[in-house]
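Person: Show me a sequence?

Helper:
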Amino acid sequence: MIKVYINDKPYDVVEGITIMQAAAMAGYKIPSLCYHPRLSIYGGCRVCIVEVEGVKNFAASCSYPIKDGMKIRTNTEAVRKARKEIVELILDNHPQDCNICKRNGICELQNLAREVGVEERMFAGERKRYDKDDASPCVENNQEKCVLCGRCVRMCAEIQKIRAIDFVNRGIKTRVSPAFDMSFKDSVCSCCGQCITVCPTAALTEKDYIKETFEVLNDKSKIKVAQIAPSVRAAIGEFFGLKPGKNWEKETAASLKKLGFDYVFDTQFSADLTIVEEASEFLDRLKGNGALPMITSCSSAWMKAMEQFYSDLIPNVSTCRSPMSMLSSIIKTYFAKKINVDPKNIASVAFMCCVAKKYEAAREELLIDGMRTTDYSLTTRELGRMLKSSGINLPDIKGEEFDSPLGQSSGAATIFGVTGGVMEAALRTAYELATGKTLIDIEMTQARGFEGVKEGKIDVDGTEVRFAVVHGLGNAAKILDVVRKDKNKYHFIEIMACPGGCIGGGGQPYTAVNGQTFDINLLKLRAQALYDSDKSKIIRKSHENPDIKKLYDEFLGTPLGEKAHKLLHTHYKPHFPKGI
């Protein structure tokens, strides 16, 4: 500990931290824009400047290290004036369309301007003009709204290790772009959307399908069917200003009925279906009928990254479709037959935590008899905007159950939304299918937690099954480098592209914690909502779901059978973006 003086008061702080961190410990919040606690220090915006006695110029508090006896002033008239002018300069090179901007009311630049006291636009002149890149099915890039904070660039490079974007050009022409000035559509972007979660403005946003979905809801010739992912119900309340950590499952189902959907099904049902297929596939490979380690395939962004950077491992990837795509297939086959409707007259809309699901929905490999099964995939944020624009206030809604026959799920399906959940659910089923015995201790702590890479093992009928769980594409790179060197180290690997798994998906609500998004404590609260839901369920294993058993008896036949392969499995191929 060392002693420093902040605004003329002495404080004992930890040696080696920055001025910003020391000030926070002392109860002073220093405004910032480019700083993010989970990313490297950039120090580019200079909004966080302070005065340090003996130092000629203002110091950027996010990067300036504390020294013993240092005297710091965070709120002098000169500092306030300089901060205000910096923000004014940023604003005067920014569009004046706040009222129609997606981030209106939840924009960090807007909040910062209010915080430092900006009341008018002070500087006139030519501002930057760029065309919006909206060719990607997932991500829109509007560089007119970019403040060059670099958070998206660092997220993509440091956390996800994709390096799809970077600064290009110099001076007033500097902007953020994929390599060779490509569109996001043609780049190595994995569509994970993590750049969106850390962008302080609306420079990067998800491709919005709200208008198209409302058009479908108003089409009387269509049967409108919705599905909801586990992680959506764990986070949607935050969009309405509610504290994180509660499962809003029934209220969300009821809200979608109020929006105009004829049927609301649960993606957790097809998560159970995924587990039955995936556990069966894993046990088949364990007998020598396929490559090991088997790697999960539920994460759309991981699938895109795999095809681009790890195509040599395609034989190791599970052929199972994601729960979203499985349910969409079943909706347009089994359910269409149940209600005696032409599947072309069914509009299937999925509400996901994920931006990359938009890419998945459009994949040709997932067509059935030339028919697209997921017509639109929308994020949790888009769902929140649809509810608000329709005057539906989630906390006031009386909850309803999901519709039958695709609405019942097990606790194993619920935990799909958090890192380690797929592995835990799969092993619960794989163990019992292989041994014929009841697994007593079904909560596998080895698969839980927020370490980047987790390892564990379980005895399955005399075979020690070694598994690994990773979240974040950067951590995936670490584990896959190991697999390339030693394919015998693991039998089963779960990979989720987003930090924390689906609960940290790129389409989740913009929730600021201490002024920043992407907070580990927030992810833990969302995860706990799902773990609590798992505990409260009577059925906690996917293969025990009676509606899953009925689906096989009435329609699919057997796991890994001919019909199951057609509707529930897919294939992958190497993918190289244009220009590479």
